[in-house]
Input
Amino acid sequence: MTIRCHPHALARMEERGTSEEEVIETVKAGERFAAKFGRTGFRRNFAFGETWRGKQFNTKQVEAYAIQEGTDWLVITVLTRYF
Output
């Protein structure tokens, strides 16, 4: 299985403080759920313990939305939540 990131997803990752490694790990080992437009969502929490935009957070949640192409995944966009 190969996991690729669309240029839109790469831009959102940079904007939202998520690494490509975190997105790949989210797709490989995260919770899987159905999403709109026939896409699949993946969600995973990561220990964070750092500051993001001036506030301290212990957890970073990454959501990756992808489409399946054969046995591969193309990540379309990424959301990140801090708490």
About this structure: The beta strands are 3-5, 31-34, 40-52, 55-69, 72-82. The chain has a mean pLDDT of 97. The longest helix spans residues 7-16. The two ends are 31 Å apart (CA to CA).
